[in-house]
Design goal:
Distance between the termini: 34 Å
Shape: elongated
Order of helices and strands: EEHHHHEHEHEHEHEHEHEEH
Radius of gyration: 21 Å
Structural class: alpha/beta
Number of helices: 11
Number of strands: 10
Strand order of the largest sheet: 5-4-6-3-7-8-9-10
Length: 324
């Protein structure tokens, strides 16, 4: 698949590259801002004095790593800085990179896919995060891996959501279970589960309605859907992916926390990472939520949803080298 839809028109795919190249594009603004602030502080300070460390914490905050995570990383660098013989930007960057890698390494990794006849995935999140497009991109990945796939249009509230997913399903050559706009999402889910079992489908992807994490009735509805899935398919939903818009920065952290509590989110898909200077939100998700980032969206094309590589992300967050 080489193109995507944007406002109804195809968007050609860019030449494919590795994870690092794609994420580096998205994080260019982030690492440029961090290194510029640190470079100025190191030049003006005497070695790694407290003013440099304060600049480090400010730079991390501006990248939206979150207050707690910024303080933790700064404290770790502070402990190491005293024993460092080198006092230049490259040394500071190296220490920060190692601490970021340590933070990520201590977080959970995505759980392995269970060997079940029907693997059920829920996609949840707030309006505008990119759930419907992500549902289709995940479906394309599943199909490419050789699995049979069924899509469920359980976002019956947002105008145009069903038609948007139908367009995707038609382009991908995949079946879609849909009801009319305004229908009961649980009824859509039930029909999708029934159809998937009857047809011997291997993977069911459920696009749920966007909901604010503060709306109790909508969160209760999501809990009801989870119960229906578990009743119809043992262990379902096997995966609940929280779709977060990277451009929301730390505001997305509270969203994520509530969805973990109410919806049993097991992982994160971070969208729009190609257009955000707030890529540090990944670190806050890892440290404060202990939730793995499974995929990142780095563009409009259908194959611009790529598996998250924590080590490569850490390098991209700080650029290739201190000269950036």
């Amino acid at each position: 698949m080489s193109e995507d839809l944007k406002d109804g028109a195809p968007v050609p795919a860019r030449p494919r590259g590795g994870f690092f190249a794609k994420v580096k594009r998205g994080l260019f603004m982030t690492h440029t801002e961090i290194l510029e602030k640190l470079g100025t502080a190191v030049k003006e300070g005497l070695g790694f004095d407290e003013s440099v460390l304060e600049s480090l914490e400010e730079a991390l905050l501006s990248a939206d790593v979150g207050a707690e995570t910024a303080a933790t990383l700064t404290d770790a660098v502070r402990r190491r800085a005293g024993g460092s013989e080198r006092k230049d930007l490259a040394a500071l960057r190296g220490m920060l990179l190692e601490e970021i890698e340590t933070l990520i390494a201590s977080a959970p990794t995505p759980s392995g896919r269970p060997d079940v006849p029907l693997f059920v995935t829920f996609l949840v999140g707030v309006n505008g995060s990119g759930k419907t497009t992500t549902s289709a991109k995940l479906a394309a990945r599943e199909k490419a891996s050789g699995r049979s796939v069924l899509l469920a249009a359980a976002d019956t509230f947002r105008a145009g959501a069903i038609e948007q997913l139908q367009t995707w399903a038609d382009r991908l050559g995949l079946p879609l279970i849909r009801h009319r706009e305004g229908a009961d999402p649980s009824a859509v889910l039930f029909d999708a589960l029934t159809a998937a079992k009857a047809r011997g489908i291997g993977s069911l992807l459920v696009d749920t309605a966007g909901r604010l994490h503060t709306k109790k009735n909508l969160m209760d509805e999501l809990a009801k859907m989870r119960r229906i899935a578990a009743r119809e398919v043992p262990g379902a939903p096997h995966e609940t992916l929280l779709v977060l818009d990277a451009t929301t920065g730390v505001n997305g952290l509270e969203q994520a926390r509530r969805f973990v509590e109410a919806a049993g989110a097991t992982g994160v898909v971070l969208t729009k990472l190609d257009g955000s200077a707030r890529g540090g939100i990944v670190l806050a998700i890892y440290r404060e939520l202990k939730l793995p980032v499974v995929f990142v969206g780095v563009g409009e094309a259908v194959d611009d949803l790529v598996p998250f590589d924590p080590a490569e992300y850490a390098k991209a967050l700080l650029g290739d080298d201190a000269s950036h």
